[in-house]
Write a structure and sequence with these properties.
There is one protein chain. The protein is α+β, with helices and mostly antiparallel strands and 227 residues long. The protein is built from four helices and 18 strands. The strands form three sheets. It has a ten-stranded antiparallel beta sheet with strand order 9-17-16-15-14-13-12-11-10-18. A six-stranded antiparallel beta sheet has the order 1-2-5-4-6-7, sandwiched between helices. Strands 3-8 form a two-stranded parallel sheet. A hairpin with a 5-residue loop joins strand 10 and strand 11. The two termini are 31 Å apart.
Length: 227
Amino acid sequence: MIYLIRAAATLAAMFLTVGTARAETFQLSEPTHAAYQEYLKLIGSTRKGAFAAAEDGSGAYYIYCEDVNCLTTGMTQETLDKCRSLTGKDCVLLAVGRELRMEIAVVPARTALPSDSEILANVLTPERLKAYIVGNTMQGEYRNKRKWREYYAEDGAIRGKDDRLGALRGRYDFKDDAVCYYYDGNSDWNWCARISILDGKVYFLEDDELVTNEFNTEWLQGNPHNL
């Protein structure tokens, strides 16, 4: 996680990065929610400010005035513009001052599972994992219904698409009973996961914890999206 502090005259700003479309309840990652709480502490009950979050809930930018009499003309637009620039994503204005513009919910990235969980009991063996991955497709959603889809070619290439980021390219390999993903130009996205399939649903696990910032993941045979 990277923090960037900026200050100029009576204005201070902070950008937080960690690591879709707007929903009725906007979902935030835990670090982004922590940034929002920090913003509330900084503005207190008298300072002016604005807080914007990336549409996937995983990045934020805020700005506030230390001087209670400062001018706030253009503050909300500047907050949105900086959020888009620094996260590389579309952003949503969540708050002006202490007033929330929409309901928010915090979605943890991981959730512990009990030792007798059926999800843990249905983790794919190395052989079944390769059979499910190689030459086939996965698709799902991130927070706030941002959709993704990836095809795993037989030569180890990842060819995918994200609703907001566009084309995705990378490679994958296997380590014991886990599949590891490596994305071109975005090494901070690289990760490994075990996969469980239960009642037709796909679940990702890291260190026996359920990855909960991915939703409605499906397995599709072949390359139906022509990725």
